[in-house]
Design a protein that fits this description.
mainly beta; three-stranded antiparallel beta sheet
Amino acid sequence: KTGWSTIQSEGRRLKTGWSTIQSEGRRLKTGCSTIQSEGRRLKTGWSTIQSEGRRLKTGWSTIQSEEEDLKLGGLLFKAREEDLKLGGLLFKAREEDLKLGGLLFKAREEDLKLGGLLFKARK
């Protein structure tokens, strides 16, 4: 427990004070949007992201991903060496460690990896 959020790790569930990340197979749910990974398709609450190779399409724009950099809307996704910056949150995905905005998440067996396909919820 931290000052403003509680992190609960129950198998594949991670909960913070303002959002819940639910990993069920390839499904991740946050407090404001659901990211559904079906093959190469990712869906959020307001847009659909289609991943075709390195191409991602959202509801209002099409982004070309080169060198593992993804720009979705106004958020810059840095996926080099498994480091991801979403808005102001830094995701560290090295050795199955995830750091979200100062909170460290341990993801064992179900590594969550943002990069290339954005999410990879299985080995």
